[in-house]
Amino acid sequence: MEKKVGFFKSIQFKLIIIYVLLIVIAMQIIGVYFIRQLEDQLVNNYTEMLDERANLLAYNIEQELVKPREDNTSLGIDINVLLREFFPVENSEAQVVDMNKVVLATSKAQNRHIVGQQSTEVRVKRALLGTKDTGFLRDPETGHRMRVVALPVKSEYETIGAIYIEASMEEIYDQMQQINNILAKGTAIAVAITAILVILIARTITGPIIDMKRQAQRMGKGDFTRQVQVYGRDEIGQLATSFNDLTFKLKEANASTEREKKKLSSVLSHMTDGVIATDHRGNIILMNKRAEQLLETTSEEAYSQPLPDVLRLSETFSANEIDDYSESILLDFSNEEQDFLLQASFSVIQKDNGPITGIITVLHDVTEREKIEQERREFVANVSHELRTPLTTMKSYLEALEDGAIEDIELASKFLNVTQNETERMIRLVNDLLQLSKIDSKDYQFVFEDVNFNQFIHNIIDRFEMMAKEKNIQFVRTIPLEVLYVKMDKDKITQVIDNIISNAMKYSPDGGNVSVQLLYQGNNLRLSISDEGVGIPRDSQIKIFDRFYRVDKARARSIGGTGLGLAIAKELVHAHRGEIWVESEYGKGTTIHFTLPYSTFKGGESNEV
Ligand code: ADP
């Protein structure tokens, strides 16, 4: 929130106060000094002027006094004339006194009555004694300040009279008062103008500062788009320039942090592994989408929770035992329905053996890997087991032969027959294994050619019909007349069909039917081979394509199966981009279907043979 600075707290007000005070103080000092000087000067000038006039008057009066005359009346008139002539000073009075202190004349008309009377002034007395006396007086009536001069009138070293002057100096003080007033007015005007100027000048200082303040507030809210205006090259201008630089750099820094953040978050969200970060106490601070999926939780739920709780490890780990986390552990979240294994790898964030600042946990779904590993282990166990059985059988028969059975020709040939069968079975098994391992290693070579599929399937069935006669098995063919060409490896598909048909024959009862049906389905052909045999229980149906899986182990083995036939068939059909599956009702019969994509076919009618 922007807080407005009150006027009395503002820089403007402070500047105004400072300037006004400066001006007032300056004017005061100037005023006091100037007025004192001026007053002194004026007073001096006045007294000098008075003294000069008095001296001039004294000289003329002396001339008049020493002048021989018949009567004293003319003297009074002459002196009056002199007074008027030499003493036209306003607001002042000049009296002429003779040796006996009698006032001969006065320049002030109102005081005419004192002419002829004796003067009582002390200064007059002193002047008659021959000493000039001057001084300042205050008029008791008006209160005016006056300059008083008493001057002896001498005629050749003898005092023959005196002049007494009282001159008001009020005019000077009035003038001083006026000058004081002018000064005061001037000061007031100066103060007013200064205040206005200061407000204007202060604006040039506070304007940019307010601008910068606003910009700083905007920056605080994450808006770096604006710049403050630079008004000049002074300190404030430089501050504004630096401020703009700072804005730019902050903007850059902010943008790069944003970029890094985005990068990190996009890396985290696109990672196929789950990532969890914790703080130094082991509480969750970050979790990516994948981790949420793997742990079936949400970031909001997991936030601030201890890592062991989120990984459901609480029984074995406590939150504070961060150091105890091993490099990686396996978490088993499997339930009855499906397996789910996670590998959690931990790495501790720590700077040069300093305190631990957090832990990064990477979660990896290892269900598939573990499953493959498990399958591999099972496979090895199965292979060993499959090989051991014929070997032990052979060993026991050979031992029996060695122990004397060889003497009995009939028994011996029977025993040798068994060992031969077992050897053949082992060879079949090893051949099947070799073929599977070749398919697995992906360097299996297929030789694709366009094959007339109808012809191809008829040929195979013809071949089996010969063998089927022993078991009295009938083949039922449902094969369309259209000639259908399929791009395939003839030998491999022959192997697939051989395996399926021989299984059908193996598990069929005497006199049963084996039907072979060919269908077109979109871009695929579908071959279905059905028998009327024992069938396969429901829960075993998807497993029959697994390696070494047999529904009835003992029986299958006695028939001579390796348990690898359908597994090989599945791999070969998949290599031709086809599918293979089973449909069966236990006790009633089994149908194995497989599809193959075909290239072209030529018209004709469906025909049951
Ligand atoms: P095998 O060499 O033992 O026949 P396969 O992989 O060909 O191995 O078959 C796997 C198992 O599937 C057999 O052991 C058998 O139990 C079952 N099976 C396959 N075909 C049929 C069928 N037509 N009828 C009944 N069971 C079958």
Main-sheet strand order equals 16-17-15-14-12-19
Percent of residues in helices: 40-55%
Which segments are poorly predicted (pLDDT under 50) over 5 or more consecutive residues? 601-609
SSE-based structural type: alpha+beta
Q: What quaternary form is this?
A: single chain
Distance between the termini: 94 Å
Rg, Cα atoms, Å = 68 Å
Description:
With 609 residues, the protein is of the alpha+beta class. Helix content is 50%, strand content 21%. The protein has 14 helices and 19 strands. It has helices spanning 11-66, 72-86, 122-128, 170-220, 235-270, 289-295, 299-302, 307-310, 367-402, 409-440, 453-471, 490-506, 553-559, 565-575; strands at 92-98, 103-106, 133-138, 145-155, 158-168, 274-278, 284-287, 328-332, 341-350, 356-365, 449-452, 474-480, 483-488, 513-521, 524-531, 580-585, 589-597, 600-602, 606-608. The strands form four sheets. Strands 16-17-15-14-12-19 form a six-stranded mixed sheet. Strands 2-1-5-4-3 form a five-stranded antiparallel sheet, sandwiched between helices. The longest helix has 56 residues, at 11-66. Bound molecules: adenosine-5'-diphosphate. The site of adenosine-5'-diphosphate has 22 residues, from helix 12 and helix 14.
Write the layout of secondary structure elements.
Layout lengths: L10 H56 L5 H15 L5 E7 L4 E4 L15 H7 L4 E6 L6 E11 L2 E11 L1 H51 L14 H36 L3 E5 L5 E4 L1 H7 L3 H4 L4 H4 L17 E5 L8 E10 L5 E10 L1 H36 L6 H32 L8 E4 H19 L2 E7 L2 E6 L1 H17 L6 E9 L2 E8 L21 H7 L5 H11 L4 E6 L3 E9 L2 E3 L3 E3 L1
Parallel strand pairs: 12-14
Antiparallel strand pairs: 1-2, 1-5, 3-4, 4-5, 6-7, 6-10, 8-9, 9-10, 11-13, 12-19, 13-18, 14-15, 15-17, 16-17
Helix pairs in contact: 1-2, 1-4, 4-5, 9-10, 10-14, 11-12, 12-14
This protein binds adenosine-5'-diphosphate.
